[in-house]
């Protein structure tokens, strides 16, 4: 697979896809991030966009950014908003996210105090917790987590809402990125893993298995 020689911007979107008959039908972006892989600077960086960010498109349409998920509109909106080219698009729904985390063997996240979110069902004890796919999904979707104060015994909420949620998503992504790329994969194992990944994501028509392999190789060298 030819290596990536120039910087690449990949729009990665976590989608809440509701079945027909739900209160809110269709797809809504629950997580939006631009991942930039720069082999020249040997750097991988990620910029997250709040899903409730209000935007106005070039044709005058206004709305929350996550409402443009369907029909490829989100790529144009993010490209125009940030003034950058989006080279590739990767979309993953909740079931796919859980599957990818489990495929990686879970992800370990440390907590100073006991944490819970009664809305998503996430709970964690103090110390290092290895999160399964279901646990990781509840963690990154959490907007109203609470920490247990060991002195008073009271649960104290995180007031940052979506900003705190973005911080948790970025932290988990970095931990997953580090743990996966730290593995010394054989060519056969890497191909098998990427083939499994393709089954759990939706990508643009220009991103095939070789393209994913080139992105993986570039990220692994940084």
Describe this structure in words.
The chain has 6 helices and 13 strands. A hairpin with a 6-residue loop joins strand 11 and strand 12 (155-157). The two termini are 17 Å apart. Helices cover 32% and strands 30% of the residues. The strands form 4 sheets. A 5-stranded mixed β-sheet has the order 3-2-1-6-13.
Features:
alpha+beta, 30% strand, 222 residues
State the shape.
globular
Cα(first) to Cα(last) distance is 17 Å
Strand content: 25-35%
Overall mean pLDDT:
90
**Total count of strands:** 13
Structural class comes to alpha+beta
- SSE succession: EEEEEHEHEEEEHEEHHEH
The description of the largest β-sheet is: 5 strands, mixed
Q: What is the count of DSSP helices, taking H or I runs of 4+ residues? A: 6
Task: Strand order, main sheet: write it out.
Answer: 3-2-1-6-13
Q: What's the Cα radius of gyration? A: 18 Å
Level of helix content? 25-40%
């Amino acid at each position: 697979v030819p290596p990536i020689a120039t910087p690449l911007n990949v729009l990665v979107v976590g989608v809440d896809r509701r079945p027909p008959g739900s209160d809110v039908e269709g797809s809504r972006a629950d997580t939006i991030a631009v991942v930039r892989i720069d082999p020249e600077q040997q750097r991988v960086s990620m910029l997250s966009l709040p899903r409730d960010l209000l935007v106005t498109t070039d044709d005058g349409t206004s709305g929350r950014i996550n409402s443009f998920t369907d029909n490829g509109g989100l790529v144009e909106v993010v490209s125009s908003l940030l003034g950058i080219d989006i080279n590739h698009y990767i979309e993953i729904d909740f079931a796919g996210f859980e599957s990818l985390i489990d495929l990686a063997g879970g992800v370990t996240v440390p907590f100073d105090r006991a944490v819970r979110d009664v809305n998503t069902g996430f709970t964690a004890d103090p110390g290092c917790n290895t999160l399964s796919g279901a646990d990781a999904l509840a963690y990154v979707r959490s907007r109203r987590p609470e920490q247990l104060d060991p002195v008073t015994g009271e649960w104290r909420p995180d007031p940052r809402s979506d900003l705190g949620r973005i911080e948790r998503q970025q932290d988990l992504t970095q931990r997953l990125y580090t743990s996966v790329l730290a593995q010394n994969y054989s060519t056969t194992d890497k191909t098998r893993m990427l083939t499994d990944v393709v089954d759990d994501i939706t990508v643009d028509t220009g991103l095939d298995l070789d393209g994913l392999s080139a992105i993986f190789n570039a990220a692994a060298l940084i």
